[in-house]
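Re: How this chain folds, sequence and tokenised backbone to follow
Notation: Tokens come from a learned vocabulary of local backbone shapes, not from coordinates.
Start of record: The labelled sequence and token lines come straight after this line.
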Amino acid sequence: MWDPAGGDRRLATTTQELRAGRYALAAELLADRGADGDAHSAEEDVRSASEDLRDYRYLVLAQVAAATGVDTAWLAEEPGSAEAALLRMRANVIRALQAHRVRHPRAGGLIELARAQCLEAAERFPGDPLPWVALLHLAPAAPENVPGPVGLAVDGPWRTMAQLWQRDPWNREAHHRLLAAVGPKSGGSVSAVAGVALWVTSRAPAGSALSVLQLVAFIEAFRQQLGGEKPNKILLTYRNWSTAYAQQETERCYTRWFAPTGGRGALLPDLHLLAHALWAGSHWEPARKVFGAIGPYALTTPWSLHGDPEAVFVTAWERCMSGP
């Protein structure tokens, strides 16, 4: 099932309703700040897991809204709805980025509109990290790069990160957006991605989903090497994920993040990143457990790195689930 909602069936149903132009379920889902019982028991962990889930739900629904315009209809009907305003904000960030990628003549105006809406939302909802997450999402198209923290000589949207750290220090999506903002697609470098990933993961608490940032850095290095002339993808995959450092960081991500809970409450993209790294590094037994947590819910990324995503995903699943 190619469904970014994964096991979050409330999100899956809401997505279907939103595609049909009905937003009653979206209003209910997005207003729910609970963690659906899947987070850890500690108060801070519950809050963080709840915020990560909320961010992801907004992102998935905003992708639908950006394509259909349902956010505009919802806000017109309920102009005082905070959820409608935040969904429009996220949808307009996506629209601006899409225009930026294809160099649409209206891209500049869309970027300015999206940025203004993020800042308006930040003022309207001062304690909410979501407007700052959305502003980070926009960063590749509207860079405001400044030098990084002491000991990390990487320019990036650090002023925005400072606002996020005040509201949600270990926000999952924010740190993924930070990697994108310092990476090659935003005019940065693979070494910057690797440096920021190491800097964040070395400070993140045990059990944090931010452990997967190291796996994102390996993917960026692989993408760079794919830019070479006719690379052997099979050999390159084996070489990249079989180094001592890649093996160490993949195992660390598994033992510190996945193993304590068996993936309970984990978001689908993070599970796919870990399953991919374990498969590419020939860790069959732990990969089997992660694929079990994924269930039938497929994603294009990161499997498309190696060819047709469906074929690669099925091949990896069958290899890892078949035993030693």
Q: What stands out?
A: The chain is about 65% helix and 0% strand.
